[in-house]
Write a structure and sequence with these properties.
Length: about 220
C-alpha cells in the first residue's frame, strides 16, 4: 500500500535528518542554488497549504517511482495518476502533528482551494492567488519528473526534510528549565524558613496574650 511504504520511508529519512542535526552535521543536499531556493521557499510558504505539497508529492514518488509527482487527483488520468490526498492525510498530516504542527497544523490540506486542481503545473497557475509560490512548486516537481532518477528524488526529499527541521527550530516552544539547587542549600533554605516561621508564631501569640492582659483577661478561667 502506498501510504504504508511512504510512512516507512519518512520514518527512516526523518531519523537520519534528526541524527545529523543532533550531531551538528546537518547540511544541504542540493548543489543547484535555484532548486535549493525553491525548496526553501515552498517549505516556508506564506500559503499554508503549499507547505504540504513537496513533502507529499516527493515522498509519494519515492514510494512508487511510477507515479507522476505533479499529480494531485487520480481522476486526472494518464501517466502516473494517483490520489495524493490519501498520502497527505494518512502520512504527512500525522507527521506534522507529531512535530509541533511545523507545517501549519492543517487537518485536511488537500481539500483547500489551492489544491482543488488536477495537478501541480502551469496550466493551473490561474487558479492560484500565490502565483509565485505555485511556480516554485511546479519547478521542483517538474525537475523531479525530468530527472527520473530515484537517488535524485531522494536528495530532493532530504532537502525538504532538512528545511522542515530548520523550520521546526523556529516554531518549537522551549520551556526554561529551573535552576538546580544543591541539597545543602535546600536544607539551609528550609531551616531559615522554619526559624522565621517559629519566631513569627511566638511573636503573634505574645501579642495576643499582652492584648488580653491589658483588657483585664489573664487568659485563665476562674473556678
Amino acid at each position: 500500500m502506498l501510504s504504508d511504504e511512504a510512512r516507512e520511508i519518512l520514518r527512516v529519512e526523518w531519523a537520519k535528518i534528526s541524527a545529523l542535526a543532533e550531531a551538528k552535521k546537518l547540511k544541504d543536499w542540493l548543489s543547484n542554488p535555484k532548486l535549493l531556493e525553491a525548496v526553501n521557499l515552498s517549505t516556508n510558504s506564506p500559503t499554508k497549504t503549499y507547505r504540504y505539497v513537496l513533502p507529499t508529492q516527493v515522498l509519494s514518488k519515492l514510494a512508487d517511482s511510477s507515479l507522476d509527482s505533479r499529480c494531485l487527483q487520480a481522476s486526472r488520468g494518464g501517466y502516473g495518476a494517483f490520489d495524493a490526498r490519501t498520502v497527505a492525510h494518512e502520512v504527512i498530516v500525522p507527521f506534522d502533528q507529531q512535530n509541533e504542527n511545523v507545517l501549519g497544523g492543517s487537518q485536511e490540506p488537500y481539500v483547500s482551494n489551492p489544491l482543488r486542481v488536477s495537478e501541480v503545473s502551469a496550466i493551473n497557475r490561474g487558479a492560484q492567488k500565490n502565483k509565485l509560490g505555485w511556480d516554485q512548486l511546479c519547478f521542483v516537481l517538474t525537475t523531479v519528473e525530468e530527472k527520473k532518477n530515484t537517488e535524485f528524488t531522494r536528495l530532493i526529499f532530504r532537502q525538504i526534510l532538512t528545511e522542515i527541521y530548520r523550520r521546526l527550530s523556529t516554531v518549537r516552544v522551549v520551556y526554561p528549565a529551573p535552576r538546580r539547587v544543591s541539597l545543602a542549600k535546600t536544607i539551609e533554605v528550609i531551616q531559615t524558613f522554619s526559624q522565621s516561621t517559629l519566631v513569627e508564631t511566638v511573636f503573634w501569640h505574645s501579642r495576643q496574650h499582652c492584648s488580653r492582659l491589658l483588657a483585664g483577661d489573664s487568659g485563665f478561667t476562674k473556678k
